Amino acid sequence: MTSGVDETTRPATITPAIAADGPALTTLGLMTVLIGVFLPMTDFFIVNVALPTIDRDLHAPAGMLQLVVAGYAIAYALLLVVGGRLGDAVGRKRLFLAGMAAFTVTSLACGIAPGIDALVAARALQGLASAMMLPQVLSTIQATTSGPARARALGSYGATGGIAVVAGQLLGGLLVSANIGGTSWRPIFLVNVPVGIAGLILAARLVPDTRSDDPAPVDRRGTLLLGWATLALLIPLTEGRSLGWPLWTIALLITAPLAAIAFVRAERAMEERGGVPLVPISLLRVPSMRRGLLLAVPFFTGFGGFMFVIALTLQDGSGVSALDAGVILVPMALGFLAASLSTARLLPRFGRHVLTAGALIQSAGLLAIIAELATSWPHPGALWMAPGMLALGIGQGLIMSPLFGAVLSEVPRRKAGVGSGVLATTQQGALALGVATLGSLYLTIAVPGAAGPDGAARVILGILVLNALGVGVMSRSLPTLGRTP
């Protein structure tokens, strides 16, 4: 369901592994590597709940506040595939430990950041650390387990994601509202430090070391061009409005499509030469990949925009506490978890209709939230918001989990790993795009004299209703997803 939420990185197959330390992954070892999933995912939801408090404490310009979320997602998206390839080459345990150490240090840097500029920079480095750490989790599970043990490990991986969503909402609200020692929002990052240290100690002893016997090289040129295209698009969209669209933002936007064209040409040329590009262009000719990514972009863009907007609406607009805002969002997280767990039973019977139903349920949830904001503003309550939030979470869960399988269903097995990486990169990039576009629109019309926070929220939620309906229509073009007659 988020930044991390990284069902998307699950490879259907991996290259043969060399177990340097010998033993298979134990139960304690599995619990240890899952810390590498729990921390970044929890951090995403904690940060969203804390955004208004960070804004008030650091007097952050609106564009910089957006970058607290988007900067993490951009760095993660750009370096995810690179992190996976480095793990294959130098050892997954080594990269996991390096990523965990970097995540711990950057969490500390976030927690003691003296200003918004330092916080944004530390958050981008956190995204880099996550890109080193997270790809190693599923690669390690795949390389050190088999049969029922692998199925249980992957189930635990999915459950960890669901637990992280709920924990992030509640823990974020609790830590911010507690204002421990007058530290305001800072404990949401500092809490990662002792957990990260414990994870490092346990991983050094309990996680087997594996690596690929045929690792793919890092595509430096492709990574640089994709990075330029992404930053040239998202930085102006995030900062341009608050700065009054200076000339450099317009110039940077103009270079974005040029960098994108250069990226496609470079990737196609490398693939034709028999190399291993960051994004094999041939993958986009696979119908499930092409159609699935076209659906993934609006879905994750909408989710990123919603999480940013709802946090500001509830706390800055209606004045509820961070804890109350977290409580309001809990039904969404629970609905997402329950729906995600149900898709394994629903897909064999209903196939892609599960995603279509999820889009309709999501739309209904958004309409219920719009109606509640219209009738109860400025005092929306957790009880009355719960039905809409629950329906929204159920709809999201019915879409997200099957979407991963749909995208990869027709991808050749030898390219399944890189296909997963492309999907994960798309996911994180779309989350950042949602914050940049929908967040900027909200901040533009939420000011006094315009629509105000409640009116701006209803506009954004209305756009998201149309977005969800569009996702539902697009879901009709996906593969059958294992439906049985």
Explain this structure to me?
The chain has two domains: 6-219 and 276-474, Up-down Bundle (Growth Hormone, Chain: A), CATH 1.20.1250.20; 220-275. The protein is mostly helical and 485 residues long. It contains 15 helices and two strands. Helix content is 77%, strand content 1%. The chain has a two-stranded antiparallel sheet.
In short:
The chain has helices spanning 27-58, 62-90, 92-111, 116-144, 147-178, 187-190, 192-206, 220-243, 247-272, 287-317, 322-350, 353-376, 382-408, 416-445, 452-474, and strands at residues 17-19, 210-212. It is mainly α and 485 residues long.
- Estimate the global geometry from the Cα principal axes: globular
How many strands, which pairing sense, and closed or not: the largest β-sheet? 2 strands, antiparallel
How many helices? The count is 15
Q: Please state the average pLDDT score.
A: 86
Q: Strand tally, please?
A: 2
CATH topology of the largest domain: Growth Hormone, Chain: A
Any low-confidence stretches, pLDDT <50, length ≥5?
1-22
Question: How much strand content do the residues show?
Answer: under 5%
Return the domain count: 2
Q: How would you write the strand order of the largest sheet? A: 1-2
Order of helices and strands: EHHHHHHHEHHHHHHHH
Rg is 21 Å
Oligomer: single chain
